[in-house]
Design a protein that fits this description.
cytoplasm, RsgA_N, binds guanosine-5'-diphosphate, OB fold (Dihydrolipoamide Acetyltransferase, E2P), globular, nucleotide-binding, binds zinc ion, 6-stranded mixed sheet, GTP-binding
Length: about 300
């Protein structure tokens, strides 16, 4: 039989078979794991092959194989810094909720999130929430941001989760897909999921504060079927993705607007910092690359908090 993992406790996996039944499964013996070394061989979202076995008078599922993951997100354990935990796999998209204030979402955070998502091969949709609460000036800023990110290729939707405005547009994108909601604590994730009438209450809000303080609690993601044809992967305390180790030469690959430019840089190993005849810096001077994006890029490449392009 084959199915999809909906829940994991670390030793038991709840698998929904292709005929719609749920089975409690274990893994037994060794089987082919995917390239990555992780503390958990099977993750929520994995497509697995399993069969039923009778143990005593109990029938349990035994997972024998994992299908290839189209993508996955990880969390690093703080205590065991080298250990990687796969939070979830096979996501169709992540909605990143952004608010200008209450709480502020800085472009450095958005960009870091987008870079990680590009590296993980996960499409991101930006939801600019609390549109009702902004002054004219702030609205202008939001539209400026939406313009910036749409030009790079990210879908942007202004919403008012509390009033339910544009929530139908979010719902439409969710149909048939597995989605996740991310963003700082307080941006309105739970409010949005309520407004979507999913029949689900998110765990995110309760635990995120704790997680933000860096206390690592072993938390497991869980997948839910919604009241309409869509699935949500809920994970306590997710505001961003785990940081992946990225080579500094790799980071530019995850800025889509650099893509066309790179081949015009004089040096093919150009880091777009102080090299001569750099097409990215030229585009920056011509306002074809946004200053905030370039600033985020430099921050990620140099890891230098004092770099001149750093956001205050
Ligand atoms: P979460 O931590 O991301 O799950 O955020 P919540 O859903 O708990 O929302 C945090 C606060 O923002 C709550 O007081 C919500 O009522 C409020 N909020 C959510 N959406 C909106 C909105 O569209 N407009 C306004 N003004 N407030 C909102
Ligand atoms: Zn360059």
């Amino acid at each position: 039989m084959n199915g999809t993992v909906y829940k994991s406790t670390g030793s038991w996996y709840t698998v929904k078979s292709s005929d719609g039944e749920f089975y409690e499964c274990r893994i037994k013996g060794k089987f082919r794991t995917q390239g990555i070394k992780s503390t958990n061989p099977v993750a929520v979202g994995d497509v697995v092959e399993f069969h039923l076995e009778n143990i005593g008078d109990e029938t349990i599922g035994v997972i024998s194989e994992i299908g290839e993951r189209k993508n996955y997100i990880v969390r690093r354990s703080v205590k065991l810094s080298k250990q990687t935990h796969i939070i979830a796999s096979n996501l169709d998209q992540v909605f990143l909720l952004v608010t200008l204030n209450n709480p502020p979402t800085f472009t450095s955070f958005i960009d870091r999130f987008l870079v990680t998502a590009e590296a993980y091969d996960i499409p991101v949709i930006l939801l600019f929430n609390k549109m009702d609460s902004y002054s004219e000036e702030e609205k202008f800023e939001v539209h400026w941001l939406m313009d910036l990110y749409s030009k790079i290729g990210y879908k942007c939707i202004p919403i008012e989760a509390k009033q339910g405005k544009n929530v139908d547009k979010v719902k439409e994108l969710m149909l048939g897909n597995t989605s996740m909601f991310a963003g700082h604590s307080g941006v309105g994730k739970s409010t949005l999921v309520n407004a979507l009438e999913t029949g689900l209450e998110l765990k995110t809000a309760e635990i995120s504060e704790q997680h933000m303080q860096g206390q690592h609690t072993t938390t497991f993601a869980e997948m839910y079927d919604l009241s309409f044809d869509a699935r949500i992967i809920d994970t306590p305390g997710i505001k961003g993705f785990g940081i992946v180790d990225m080579d500094k030469y790799e980071i530019g690959d995850y800025f889509p607007e650099f893509f066309e430019l790179k081949s015009d840089c004089k040096f093919n190993n150009c880091l777009h910092l102080d090299e001569p005849k750099c097409a990215v810096k030229e585009a920056l001077e011509n306002d074809e690359v946004a200053a905030s994006r370039y600033r985020s890029y430099v921050q990620m490449v140099t890891g230098d908090e004092d770099n001149p392009y750093r956001e205050r």
